[in-house]
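User: I'm curious whether this sequence folds into something compact or stays loose and floppy. Could you predict its structure so I can see for myself?
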Amino acid sequence: MSTVHLNIGSNLGDSRAIIARSIAMIARALAPARLDLSDYVTSPPWGYESPHPFTNRGVMITTERVLDPMDVLRATQAVEQALGAATPHRNSDGSYRDRLIDIDIIDIDRLHIHTQQLTLPHPRMAQRPFVTGPLLQLEPGYPL
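Assistant: Here's the prediction. I'll summarize afterward.
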């Protein structure tokens, strides 16, 4: 059994529709036994200036099987690509930019992983109220 926490955000286009579509695609890819969704959260962009606020939603996926974190990463990246997020979410200087979709893996089974491709738990989650609010709504006792 696995529990996966995601945070999905968008600040371009019809953000709620894009987030809903990404959730449906992730559900098809990971075949959860249970899928819980937080309320939507709207906030200014984090780490850069933009006139476009972000809409975020937390997702908690519970499966009957153990998921490989790299499979989850590949699935979320495939969804981002399918939804037109071919442009990186950072500029060439490393600064953030507006984006149609951004899917962050916050936690998988309380694993601690640090690779070039994936760090778990998400290293900046506690600094981001648009992540911690939805996360705690879905799992009130989650240790930040």
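Summary: The radius of gyration is 14 Å. Strands lie at 2-10, 34-43, 54-63, 102-108, 113-114, 119-120.
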